[in-house]
Amino acid sequence: MELVDFYKLVRLGEMETFQEEEVVLQQGQLNEYLRFVIDGELSVIRDGHLVEIFKEGNFISEHGLHAGVKLTGSIKSSATIVPRTATVKCMRWNRTQLIPLLESNKRMWGSFQSTMLLDAVKRLKCQRQLVLRRTLRTGSDTPEDTVIYLQMKGEAHYSNILEKYLHQLMENDGNIAADVKKATKNLEQYRNIHHINYAYHLQALRQFGWTEAEFKAGQKMKAESDTTTGLEWWCWNWM
């Protein structure tokens, strides 16, 4: 990344320090920040089970940005995140401020996305190693138990991303992006990277009241009752 681009990112971000007893994020909490771990380690806990460890150089709450999914505002956290060292230092960016900056500079966006993607792939490989070494073991959990909780965390993470994407589609009447096909392709890329199967994607859509056709079209179809004309309404009420 060019030095001038790095300076712009640092200037937009905020430094924060967490102590061992603090909670960075609570599972289910709305979070508007992307974080980058500068020093220390953090535990990622899903339903009381340790599923991941964040270390120096890791991004927290990227929510699909590494796959090109650009969502602004707050998104639910899929896990609780707490320090596992005495202190943890992070750089954080407000997502609503960060994304316009990245979109205004293709060179910066390309470098930033590549860095996040590389981090995401490394973390996935690290997760497998930690499971095999039983480093992520909680209580009497077996490696198989840990894999199940990891999958639950990954699916919940995708659901939170999808819910936010659909919400922004509704708010913007289908104009969340200039090219809805590109946005859906980026979500597909996210699923491929994180091994979220298509069946779960369809299940999540149904949970939020959407069909796959509506998802691909980028807008919710109006119910038949919503399309009643003024004349039809007048005739119905005077029958």
Produce the secondary structure layout.
Blueprint: H1 3-12, E1 14-19, E2 30-31, E3 33-39, E4 42-46, E5 49-54, E6 59-60, E7 75-76, E8 80-83, E9 87-94, H2 95-103, H3 106-132, H4 143-171, H5 180-193, H6 198-207, H7 212-217, H8 230-237
Antiparallel strand pairs: 1-9, 2-7, 3-6, 3-9, 4-5, 4-8
Helix pairs in contact: 4-6
Description:
The protein has 239 residues and is an alpha+beta fold. 47% of the residues lie in helices and 18% in strands. The chain has eight helices and nine strands. It has helices spanning 3-12, 95-103, 106-132, 143-171, 180-193, 198-207, 212-217, 230-237; strands spanning 14-19, 30-31, 33-39, 42-46, 49-54, 59-60, 75-76, 80-83, 87-94. The strands form three sheets. A four-stranded antiparallel beta sheet has the order 1-9-3-6. Strand 4 and strand 5 form a beta hairpin. Helix 4 (143-171) packs across helix 6. It starts with a helix and ends with a helix.
Rg on CA atoms, Å: 21 Å
- How many β-strand stretches? 9
Intertermini distance: 70 Å
Structural class: alpha+beta
Mean pLDDT: 86
Tally of individual helices: 8
Global morphology: globular
What is the helical fraction, as a range of percent? Answer: 40-55%
Multimeric state: single chain
Largest beta-sheet characterization: 4 strands, antiparallel
Low-pLDDT ranges: 232-237
- Percent of residues in beta strands? 15-25%
Following the backbone from N to C, one meets helices and strands in this order, namely HEEEEEEEEEHHHHHHH
Cross-sheet strand order for the largest sheet = 1-9-3-6
